Amino acid sequence: RNGIYPLMNFAASRPHALPRALSQPQEDPQKAKTPTPEPFDVETRKVVQMQCNMELNEDKSQWHLTLLLILEDKLHRQLSYDLLPTDNSKDLATELVHYGFIHEDDCEKLAAFLESAFHKHRAQA
Q1: Is 17 helix (H, G, I), strand (E, B) or coil?
Q2: Which DSSP letter does residue 15 get?
Q3: Which residues fall within 8 angstroms of residue 123, CB to CB, at 6 or more apart?
Q4: Residue 90, pLDDT above cutoff 90
Q5: Which of 12, 47, 52, 79 is least surrounded by CB atoms within 10 angstroms?
Q6: Which fold has domain 47-123?
Q7: Predicted pLDDT at 67
Q8: Residue 111 CB: number of other CB atoms within 10 A?
Q9: How far apart are CA 14 and CA 16, in angstroms?
Q10: Helix axis angle, 107-124 relative to 89-98, nearest 10°?
């Protein structure tokens, strides 16, 4: 007689208020605005083999770097990046360590590898 949902007629006219002791405390507005940076995982495997390919983009204004890393457990990690004119090999390797793509001990080795690849490919262009 009251339709498909008969219990709707008996619902409270307004929601029940929670007691103040059970309500959640207000957050400090300064803490809510500053996000905490996400921690990155540290890579424990070392790189056993590196390959690098650099190509000019279609408009010939920017280099595109593709880096293939083979880790100790035979995992293949392929990374690609559009190089900026201000990029250098040391900063790129440090960034890869920071984001957990390579082991910290491989930073210098990768920086030297990238530097030689940059010179080789830019000399050919």
Answers
A1: coil
A2: P
A3: none
A4: yes
A5: 12
A6: Ubiquitin-like (UB roll) (3.10.20)
A7: 96
A8: 18
A9: 7
A10: 140
| Greatest Cα pair distance in the chain | 87
Token pair of 22 as six digits? 């059970």
Side chain identity at residue 1, one-letter code: R
Bigger pLDDT: 10 vs 101: 101
The one-letter amino acid code at 108 reads E
Residue that has been written with the tokens 């990690």 in this structure: 77
> What is the per-residue pLDDT for 82?
93
User: How far from 8 is each of 1, 2, 68, 75, CA to CA, in Å?
Assistant: 12, 9, 62, 59
Nearest residue to 50 (alpha-carbon basis) of 125, 112, 124, 119: 112
Flag whether pLDDT at 31 surpasses 70.
no
Tokens linked to 85: 């004119």
The residue to which tokens 């507005």 are assigned = 29
CB atoms within 10 A of CB 46: 15
